[in-house]
């Protein structure tokens, strides 16, 4: 009881002004046995740390290509610095692809620091549910979601790249609006 506890038993009796460090310890009673536990084991996870987006309105980043080599699209890069190396990202990507009526297709991919993490190919020979198909042409809206655990606190860049499925046949990217949204969570 109070008579057995010395007044100076607990030092620093003021409230915490910030979130505890992962190695800070708490005392808990486990079935009557007093134990200590690190904050890292009891803190909540899934907390949103930041949301960042980029993109353009009205087709400012329109591009076309007839090369089978992936090329960067300017104007829709998303550059950010993760809050913690343990952070996870959910990425939302949307854009428009138009095959231009040439009987072939166009590929697009999302990259993370210049490495491809996704790829979508649209080919005139095949339709999909988001497509406007006329003659040998597909104009399609693409929306994709991705999960990424980069394990770094260094600045990272998300970028869209395109290529033609068949050399010398031109396809068009973003005759609409392209956008990348990244949500970082603990």
Descriptive overview:
This protein has strands at residues 25-30, 33-38, 48-55, 63-65, 71-72, 78-80, 88-98, 105-112, 115-116, 120-123, 131-134, 137-148, 156-164, 171-173, 179-185. With 186 residues, it is an all-beta fold. Strand 11 and strand 12 (137-148) form a beta hairpin. The radius of gyration is 26 Å and the shape is rod-shaped.
In total, how many beta strands?
A: 15
Query: What is the molecular shape?
Result: rod-shaped
Q: Radius of gyration, Cα only, in angstroms?
A: 26 Å
Broad structural category? mainly beta
Give a concise summary.
With 186 residues, the protein is mostly beta strands. 0% of the residues lie in helices and 47% in strands.
Offer a few descriptive terms:
186 residues, mainly beta, 7-stranded antiparallel β-sheet, 6-stranded antiparallel β-sheet, rod-shaped
Topology:
Layout lengths: L24 E6 L2 E6 L9 E8 L7 E3 L5 E2 L5 E3 L7 E11 L6 E8 L2 E2 L3 E4 L7 E4 L2 E12 L7 E9 L6 E3 L5 E7 L1
Antiparallel strand pairs: 1-2, 3-15, 4-14, 5-13, 6-13, 7-12, 7-14, 7-15, 8-9, 8-10, 8-13, 11-12
């Amino acid at each position: 009881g109070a008579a057995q506890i010395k007044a100076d038993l607990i030092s620093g009796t003021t409230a915490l002004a910030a979130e505890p460090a992962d190695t800070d310890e708490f005392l808990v009673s486990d079935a009557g046995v007093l134990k200590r536990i690190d904050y890292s084991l009891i803190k909540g996870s899934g907390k949103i740390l930041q949301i960042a987006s980029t993109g353009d309105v009205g087709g400012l980043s329109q591009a076309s290509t007839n090369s089978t080599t992936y090329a960067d699209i300017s104007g829709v890069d998303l550059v950010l610095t993760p809050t913690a190396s343990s952070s996870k990202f959910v990425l939302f990507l949307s854009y428009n692809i138009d095959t231009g009526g040439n009987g072939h297709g166009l590929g697009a991919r999302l990259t993370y620091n210049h490495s491809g993490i996704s790829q979508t190919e649209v080919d005139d020979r095949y339709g999909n549910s988001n497509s406007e198909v006329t003659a040998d042409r597909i104009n399609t809206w693409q929306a994709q979601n991705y999960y990424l655990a980069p394990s770094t606190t260094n600045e990272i860049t998300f970028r869209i790249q395109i290529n033609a499925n068949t050399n010398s046949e031109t396809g068009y990217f973003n005759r609409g609006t392209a956008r990348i949204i990244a949500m970082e969570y603990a």
